[in-house]
Amino acid sequence: MNNTIIEKIFKHTKGFDTHIILNSTKGSLTRFGDNEISQNVSTSETRADVRIIRDGKIVKFIISRFSDDDIKIVVKKAVETLNVLKKAPFIPEPTRTEVKIDSKRYYDEKTANMSPSERAYCIKDILKFCKKTQRLSYGIVSNSEDEVVVANNIGLYQRYKATKINYEIIVNKNNAYGKAVGYSYKNDINFNSINEIAVKKSDMACSPVEIKPGRYTVIIEPLAFVEVFSFFSYLGFNALAYYENRSFASGNLGKKLFSEKVNVIDDPFDMPVMPFDLEGMPRERVVLVENGVLKNVVTDKKTSKLTGLPYTGNSIFEPNSHGAISLSLSMLPGKKTSDEIIADTDRALLVTDFHYTNPLKPKSLEITGMTRNGTYLVENGKIKKAVKNMRFTQSMVEALNNVEDISSDRKTLSEWIASISVPTVKIKNFNFSSGTEF
Amino acid sequence: MNDMLKRAVEIMKFKRVDFGDIRIIDEQQQNINVKNTEITELKNDTTLGFGVRVLYSGGWGFASSNKMTLPEVERVVELAIDIAKASSNLVNSKVRLSKEESYTDVWKTPCLIDPFSVSVEKKLETLFSVNNILLKNPKIKTANSKMSFIKTHKYYASTENSFIEQVLIYSGAGYNAVAIGDDVQVRSYPGAHAFMLSMGYEYVDSLKLVENAERVREEAIALLTAPLCPSDDRDLIIYGDQLALQIHESCGHASELDRVLGYEESYAGSSFLTTDKLGKFRYGSDIVNLVADTTLPGGLATCGYDDDGVKAQRWHIVKNGILSGYMTNREFCNRIGDKKSMGANRADSYHSIPIIRITNLGLMPGEWEYDDIIKSTKKGVILENNRSWSIDQKRLNFQFGCEIGWLIENGKIKKMVKNPVYQGITHKFWGSCDAIANEKYWKLYGVSNCGKGQPGQIFKMTHASSPARFKNVKIFGR
């Protein structure tokens, strides 16, 4: 069916350079709160993002109705718009590549077809357990199937079909919260062990003590670290921010900015992620930080021209005002396990999760946010007690320079076409700026 | 459309569901972004699809599709029922909806100029004119201007025999200037977030985009060399989209009843405004009145009916400083003893299930002249437009950064300061509100990027306010 849609769009846009991103998605999500299913949804959608170019003019549109008549109407409108435009200063060249991709590496039919009762079965035991033990549970279990085809009318045809299953659970007993998550492209998630972690974290979070705002050594677990590390993707390693002097990377390529323990790559081959970008260009492994030295930023067609750097396959459908995004950011692992890092620590705060993080100063990646779902004091190598939640206000560029340890164990989390892989990190002098009432 | 609505309702009735409804949404959207002298986005989108919601044996099921055929409607209804059956085995008690009248009605956003009737050339001419002015000084490295228009045609039918057709129109325009020196400074107009209202193109005309561009440019440049905001406790006079966001984050989300009851805990968190506090809790000072209103002309959440089929209403969330109400829907209103929903249940698209969302929520005007607020402030800062935002999961500890501040000493505005950030605890902050400007200064500020729910939904609402003063708030420069 998807090929027919693409052919139809090409037929109706004859005489133009046409680029299509066809996305078919089927997703289902069971949400629970207060030990019961509160929402249970399923959705399916096919849509085409289309770009047409002629005589140096460019226009984009979306089609979600695919009869010949519907396509004709939408294209006619787009052409009318295109005709009144002036020539654009930048026109993305049509993608030409010898590398043809048709990937189903991360597709699992069972996961795609998981039923509402199978999702309910996944959470049945924890809901029962929490009810029986006067705990409350909240979370989601979701499964989805996505197919993305990127094609143009000079022969490009790249296809990626993948599935995902995602499990998140928060357990609360007397306002002591603990969270754990699981993610995979196939249903190999160990629900019981994830539940056990959330329950344990909640139990450890009871009777929190208040500590004063100030600078502390922190051990940030993957769930929390992903919240702050992901800002590097579009505010830091983005070649447009780099070119416009809005990024910490501007003027700093080749310089040592971070602790030598820090190694970061954009690695499409190491995690479930689309192996081409939305221009259809095969993606590459890009070393971003090596032993603390900033090596590269990621580029799309436009920023490659602007900066003179090679096109790395990190485009998100051009033209746009966002620039190039790292779609598979990965911090390489260290040598100790997370548990060993805790055991080797005299005094630190252990953070499970961050909440509502936002940049104050995009250039230095100064981020603020709250701790959530379990924050603890580590003393003499042991988790001693829970502490009340704190607000942090901290430059993440400075924080990565203050990294003391990186765990060997990592978590990979995913959102649509992007994935991110993060370890537990221990950072000294991390700034907590205020507290809250719980 | 009618065939599909009728068929869905017919099947749901035949299957004896407790309740069922179908929404068909036909939406047209146009986005135009111009960065410096280049169009970075010129996009016309049309989407059409439907969502079916079913309550069966006390459990919810929802399914959607954008394949507009009768067999697909039948498949999606059956799927929604299957999902509801799976839900019904894992509920604490059967969901019972509050009673509601059935309506047959048509409602349309009042609109003078259909934004889709205005030519792309005219829109582009305005945006390029703005950017030309912003870029006249080379210290402005980036000028971003944009327009966005949405027309949503919504058809609703339920097993309770409601049939409602609504046409909702939204228009937005705005821009920012990015000045880069040793620092990066941004100045926005009409707000950092506030750029859209539920009106026709007349709203864009009323903004006087070109006329404000020179001031915006000069303020962005001046911020590069302005002193850093001092760090101490000061009186804050807050206005513009900063006050809108303060209302949004600390009162709007905190008063969503589903969140209060724990049903949003897995994502955005819960609320400190627990139901035992209703009618008793001092949320703010006596002069603080926060009113939810889905009838507000121009409000982004203004409609004839919400997605439960409940008629638009106006009610207090905070009355004379006391917590007096919540954002409610038909599922949860009985948990606070209300027999009827206030009508705050909405979905952002055909493929989303309706959930409780903040409606339009405004801070009612006070009695002060704005100049008198300044004159009576000994040591203060005026703050405008949001730059960064964060609040904890119970909506207590917040921290907001603003684009610009002006120091006040002994009743006089002394100088511009950069990078002001203030921080507080919600009920203490609103408790310190001692002055609100009168209705002459009361304006609407739209929020069009509010996220909530899993799967995530983005929704729009408006927060109207006049400038207000808050005493002794912790502020610092970053």
In short:
Chain A has eleven helices and 18 strands.
Q: Any idea what the radius of gyration of chain B is?
A: 23 Å
Name the chain pair whose interface involves the most residues: A-B, 84 and 81 residues
List the domain count of chain B as a whole number: 2
Report the mean per-residue pLDDT of chain B as an integer: 97
Reported for the largest beta sheet of chain A, the result is: 7 strands, mixed
Summed up, the helix count of chain B is: 9
| β-sheet strand percentage of chain B | 35-45%
Could you tell me how far the N terminus lies from the C terminus of chain B, measured between alpha carbons in angstroms?
Answer: 55 Å
Radius of gyration of chain A: 24 Å
Q: Which descriptor suits the 3D outline of chain A? A: globular
> What structural class do helix, strand and pairing data of chain A support?
alpha+beta
Distance between the termini of chain A: 53 Å
Quaternary status = heterodimer
Which spans of chain B have pLDDT < 50 for at least 5 consecutive residues? none
State the share of residues found in helices of chain B, binned by percent. Answer: 10-25%
Task: Please give the domain count of chain A.
Answer: 2
Mean pLDDT of chain A: 96
What structural class do helix, strand and pairing data of chain B support? alpha+beta
Count helical runs of chain A: 11
Number of strands of chain A: 18
